[in-house]
TrEMBL record:
Database matches in SUPFAM superfamilies: (Trans)glycosidases
Record keywords: Glycosidase, Hydrolase
Record organism: Streptomyces montanisoli
GO biological process: carbohydrate catabolic process
Residue ranges of the region described as Disordered: 1-21, 331-351
One GO molecular-function entry: beta-glucosidase activity
Pfam families: Glyco_hydro_1
Similarity section: Belongs to the glycosyl hydrolase 1 family.
Protein name: Beta-glucosidase
Domain of life from the UniProt record: Bacteria
Gene Ontology CC: cytosol
Length: 495
């Protein structure tokens, strides 16, 4: 994709690069995007500056008991003030693309009406700084930070929110559409719908199964309406995408009951989005599974599916760990079944399939999130999408791991576990490419340590360590390793 071609020429090697790096695998395709990703609320800070007003995550984080240690994103990684230094760091690491999200309330404080120019100016400056550094900007319109005013009016379970999102998309396209070649409408709408309105472990913290399904449909509709607006506003060569955290679902055993559990979770975890967006219809089994929860005939209006299924140019895939499920046994009671890797709750995010039990795979390494490390899951996910939608380009838009990183007395952050994680998952991408999958790029999550949602600052996903007291940035060993991968356009051989 020409919009994501790397710089021409060869960058000088920096002091961070390991000597003697050679690619042991086949090179990645010419023009493969090598990036890193962040989200506005997790890194920007400046929560009440230049006209920004609260989003649902501001409200959620400031509610006692919602976020570990009472942490908030008020300051976060202070990217709002330090973005130029952060872009310089990206350039040093050799990134060819940077995926960032836009804070809706920074540019449209109530989610309605005219934009705040000071907010737009931040994203203009960020975009210009990236372009000057030879880094392709990739903008995500929505990464979970709904304006609190819109939540007060009903939030995503309310149909009008989709129209407000289309208005917001038009504002951003008009502001930076001439310089941003790739747009993502939404990041992980499953989390917004089912963690936000089902289990309540994410903002806005509601626990209403019907609201979670209504939210899912209106998020789909908002995506489709945004695609319409962006197509009308952006240059003809702009590329539009949607990013999904698709669950690589596996039954615990080969038994029929566990296979049925996997089908149900695949429906409400994956096909609730891929069905209408890519195939133009909600799956019949999903409708049957959830018929007692919501009236789909009332919810889905004439024309909705045509809007939702407007073609996209690329599908973003976020992957961290597989999802292993089984049918319940008699002793499977209590909230632990609802953990599912997303935080404990007495309420299930799996609307219509609350009785399914989730398992941590045995004999696999774990991250600091207690997520199983399994690169095969990424390979299987990419190949499944390739088989089911062979003409649709794919991009890994998030992949990474949290570990218990610390600064050594010598001032280094050594994270060999993260290097092994990234190596394994990039090798899985390479295998998928070799098997015919059309994968256009890879975005490491995350560029910086940041506010990890309900976990606060207790988990570190960054390739760059952030000392939150001083805001000092220290590239970890994994950042130097990733820089060498980018420079070689391939994975290294044995040390």
């Amino acid at each position: 994709m020409t919009a994501l071609q790397p710089e021409t020429g060869v960058r000088p090697r920096t002091a961070t690069a390991a000597a003697g790096h050679t690619a042991a695998t086949a090179p990645f395709p010419t023009g493969f995007a090598w990036g890193a990703a962040t989200a506005a609320y997790q890194v920007e800070g400046a929560a009440a500056e230049d006209g920004r007003t609260p989003s649902i995550w501001d409200t959620f984080a400031h509610t006692p008991g919602r976020v570990r240690n009472g942490d908030t994103g008020d300051i976060a990684a202070d990217h709002y003030h330090r973005f130029r230094d952060d872009v310089a760091l990206m350039r040093e690491l050799g990134l060819t693309a940077y995926r960032f999200s836009i804070s809706w309330t920074r540019v449209q404080p109530t989610g309605r009406g005219p934009a705040v120019e000071r907010g737009l100016d931040f994203y203009r400056r960020l975009t210009d700084e990236l372009l000057a550094a030879g880094i392709t900007p990739v903008a995500t319109l929505y990464h979970w930070d709904l304006p609190q005013d819109l939540e007060d009016a009903g939030g995503w379970p309310t149909r009008a929110t989709a129209e407000r999102f289309a208005d917001y998309a038009a504002i951003m396209a008009g502001a930076i559409g001439d310089r941003v070649p790739m747009w993502t409408t939404m990041n992980e709408p499953w989390c917004s719908a089912f963690l936000g309105y089902g289990s309540g472990v994410h903002a806005p913290g509601r626990t209403d199964p019907a609201a979670s399904l209504r939210a899912a449909h209106h998020l789909n509709l908002a995506h489709g309406r945004a695609v319409e607006v962006l197509r009308d506003t952006l240059p003809s060569d702009a590329r539009l995408s949607l990013t999904l955290n698709l669950h690589q679902v596996r039954p615990l055993t080969s038994g029929a009951a566990d296979a049925e559990a996997a089908r149900r979770i695949d429906a409400v975890g994956n096909r609730v989005f891929t069905g209408p967006v890519l195939d133009g219809a909600y799956p019949e089994d999903l409708l049957a599974d959830t018929a007692r929860v919501v009236d789909w005939g009332e919810l889905v209006r004439d024309g909705d599916l045509a809007t939702i299924s407007h073609p996209i140019d690329l599908l973003g895939v976020n992957y961290y760990t597989p999802t292993v499920v089984s049918a319940p046994e008699a002793e499977d009671t209590g909230r632990e079944r609802f953990h599912g890797g997303h935080g404990a709750s007495d309420h299930s995010p799996w609307t219509g399939s609350e009785d399914v039990v989730f398992h941590l795979p045995e004999r696999l390494g774990r991250t600091a999130m207690d997520w199983a490390i399994d690169p095969d899951g990424l390979y299987e996910l990419l190949m499944g999408l390739h088989r089911e939608h062979p003409g649709l380009p794919l991009m890994v838009t998030e992949n990474g791991a949290a570990f218990d990183d610390y600064v050594s007395p010598e001032g280094r952050v050594d994270d060999p576990e993260r290097i092994a994680y990234l190596h394994g998952h990039l090798a899985a991408v390479r295998r998928a490419l070799d098997a015919g999958a059309d994968v256009r790029g890879y975005f490491l999550w995350s560029l910086l340590d940041n506010f990890e949602w309900a976990y606060g600052y207790s988990k570190r996903f960054g390739a760059v360590y952030v000392d939150y007291a001083t805001q000092r940035r220290i590239p970890k060993a994994s950042a130097h390793w990733y820089a060498d991968v980018i420079r070689a356009n391939g994975l290294p051989g044995p040390a």
